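Fold this sequence, please.
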Amino acid sequence: MKRAWMAGAAVLGTALAGMALVRADEAAEKQALTRKLWPSERIEAALEAVARQRHDGLLSEKSYQKRKQMLLERRAGTYRPQSLAVTDPPLNFIQNAGFEQVNRNSAKDRSRWLWWSGWSWGGDYENSWEDRPEFVHSGQFSARIRCTGKTGRIGIFTPKLPSVPGASQYTLTFWARGEGENQLFVNFESGARGVLREKIPPEWKQYTVAGTPEPGSDTYMVYLYAIGEDTIWLDDMKLVPVGGKLEE
């Protein structure tokens, strides 16, 4: 009995040690990805931007201090992001993937979500966060893109994302539902190539878009934009490399 107990304890100890190594590897991988996504020049530019927003009255003192502290922690290497996923598959390059962190001070024709950028090109559109449960795939919010008049084009896009040496593909998955005569375009650009053109149906549906890396590119971006009429909702984005390894 004692011998069996000792054998079981040894197996348990080995398993726990293995789990600790996995957690350590995931932590190191998250730190490497964070450094890639937030280089020092981007942090300095963000510090200047939030200072201007406070000066212009777009941020309260409390919001300014909170964002400034986060950026200072990023610069010092002590910030621990909550929205940067490191799982199996090992990486999700999309931060704020569920659109849970909103920017209530941004213009309606720009990004309303932290981390994401936005733009518009003609027409009458607005971006906003959606909290009606039937239009949220998971969490508290989804992203809503709505035409309010003339058609044109409006979109959101990622920052420059680091290319993964040896990756054969980047796989983007997301959930979407639509209303009326909508049209969603998804493009990999500026370092990778991949396209989706789709009218989004009124039920939630998961989509997958493959991006092929361009030789010699250090970064790439992903754009999602709407044309046509009516409304599109987006939620639960995920972007992972196929093959390769993120270098320090």
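Residues 117-242 form a domain with the Jelly Rolls fold (CATH 2.60.120.260). The helical segments are 2-37, 40-55, 61-76.
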